[in-house]
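ingest -> validate -> predict -> emit
validate: passed (alphabet ok, no gaps, 148 aa)
predict: started
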Amino acid sequence: MRIEEIKASLGREAGVSDWFTVTQDLIDGFAALTGDRQWIHVDVDRARRESPFGATVAHGFLTVALLSKLVSQAVVLEVESKMRINYGFNRLRFPAPVPAGSRIRAHVTPNAVRDIEGGVEIAWGVTVEIENHVKPALAAEWLIRAYY
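emit:
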């Protein structure tokens, strides 16, 4: 999408990513990388017995880390720029956990576009859906900046 197309589609869904399976191996790798080895993420047997979710669940921040992959599948940004940066979030929530083995995908909506010194800032509304679940895994407004 070019900036003009993004501006013309504010508030309307711009794209949906492919489905992505969140495996236990991925969760374990994220736990090892971040040091967050809480049993609800890594102890399959205990989670099956004691967790209200009946299985291990992905870290919320793992879901956030997957946004780059998912959003780039949903929306191809056609902006000539020398660099793009993740500027942060205006809002970030985790309404539902992602059980290991679940498939997720991102729905992306442009919420705002504004000119900044040397570039443009885009506020993307992102919802990460969990297949066959009512509540999403993640709801956020993610800010991206592209510098010309």
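The first strand starts at residue 15 and ends at 16.
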